[in-house]
Amino acid sequence: MVVLHPSEVFLLEWKSIYRGGAARLPDSAWPVIAESAQAVERILAKGEPVYGINTGFGKLASVRISDGDLETLQRNIVLSHAAGTGEPSPVPVIRLMMALKLASLAQGASGVRVETVKLIEALLVQGLTPVVPCQGSVGASGDLAPLAHMAAAMIGVGEIFVDGVRLPAAKALAEAGLAPLVLGPKEGLALLNGTQFSTANALAGLFGAELLFQSALVTGALSTEAAKGSDTPFDPRIHRLRRHVGQMETAAALRELMAGSAIRASHLKQDERVQDPYCLRCQPQVMGAALDILRQAATTLANEANGVSDNPLIFVDTDEALSGGNFHAEPVAFAADIIALAVCEIGSIAERRIAMLVDPALSGLPAFLTPKPGLNSGFMIPQVTAAALVSENKQKAYPASVDSIPTSANQEDHVSMAAHGARRLLAMVDSATAIIGIELLAAVQGCDFHAPLKSSPVLEAVRALVRKQVPYLSDDRHFHPDMEAANHLVRSGAVIAATSDLPGLS
Questions:
Q1: Over 80: is that where the pLDDT of 58 sits?
Q2: Are residues 378 and 423 in the same domain?
C-alpha cells in the first residue's frame, strides 16, 4: 500500500503502484479536499460565469448554464468525451493513471468533493480498473477521452476490469458495494482535465527503460568478454576529462562487471588489436548519454506526477477559479520523446555487438557462434531478428512532440501529442528487451568458446543463470524457445539481480 502524500510522491512509489501495489491518501488530505469543494460553492454563490463550473466547455465556454442544469452539465461532459477507440489500455497503466489523478485532486486545487476522491481510492484499493481505450488523446486540454472513460465508470457507465474480467461498470460497482457517483459542479471537468494518461504511459516507459538500460550494461560487458575486448576504454581517467556523469558511472559499472576476469587477463599482452569496434569501446559514451537523458526525463515526469494539471484551478484563499493551460502536456511529450531516443539507441548499439560477435573477422570466434558453421546456421537469424527490431524502433522513435493538429474548432489550436508519444514506449521497450535477450544468448555462447577461461565472478553468475535454462548451442535446434527464455530473464530483472548495483534513475 502506497500512501500518496500530495506533491511528495517519489518515482519508486509510482513504480510500486505500476507493478501492482495499491494506493491511498493520508488522512491529512481530506480536509484540504473538502475546503476546495466548499470554495466552489462559494464561487457559485457569487452568481458570476466561471468556466467549466457554470459555462459550456472549449469553444462553448461563452454559453451560460443555469443552476438547475449544473449536474447534467458535468454528466454530459463525461458521456460526450468518453469517445476513445482502440484496444483497452494495460491495467497497470490505468491503475497508475488513477493514482496520479488521486494525488492531483488531493492537492485541493480542483474543487472536487471528498466522496468523489474516495471513490477513486476505493477503486484502486479493491482492484477495480475502468476499461480505457488506448487511442483518442492529443495531449492537450488534458487527456480528455481516456480520463472520460475512467469518469464514466465512476458514474456507472462503460466497463470495469475485475480480476481480468470485463464487467458493466454498474454491475462491477454494485458487486464491490460501491454506489455510482452523481457529479457535482466542476467535478466532471476536474476528472477529465489533466495529463494523467500521458504521464502514466510515459512513466511505464521510463520504468521499462531503466531495466533495459541496466540489463544492456550486463550484456554489453559479456559481449566485450566474448570478443576478448579491452577494458582500457573504461579507464576513469578518460571519462573524467569529458565530465558527463552518466558516462563516468557507466564506465565504472562496466569496469566493475569485468573485474577479475581471466578472459580479460589472457590477452593483456601480445594482443594484435589496438582498438575495439565502437560498439564495445564507446559503450560508456553511448550508454552514459542514454542514462543522462533518462534521468532528465525522470525529473520532468516526477514533477508532472506531483503537479496539478486540470483547469480551471481553485484557489481557496481568494475563492477564485483561474483558467490557464496546465493541461497542456508538452513537458510529458518532450520526456516521452527523450525516452524513445534512449531506448532506440540502447537497442541499436546492442544489435551492433551481436553483429560483431557473429562475424569471425571482427570477433575471432567461429562464424555465427556455432562450432560447425555451414552445417549449422547458429546465431545467423537471431541477429537478423535483432536488426529488424532495431529498425522498427527507429521508425517509432520519430519525435511525437513536433506534431500538432488543431481541435475543438481551433480553440485548442496547438496540442502536444503526448499520449501516443508516451504510449509507443512500452512497445519500444519490449522490442529493445528482445534485442538484449538475443545479445545475452550470443555473449554467453561466445564466452563458452574461451573455456576453461572464465569471466569475472559477477558475469559468471549471469552465465550460470542463462545456462540453467538454455544449454550450449552445439548444433542447430528450435531457437525461439531459447530466445523466449532469455527474454524472460531480462524482463523479469533476473539478469541484473545476479549482479551488483548498477546505475539507475536515482
A1: no
A2: yes
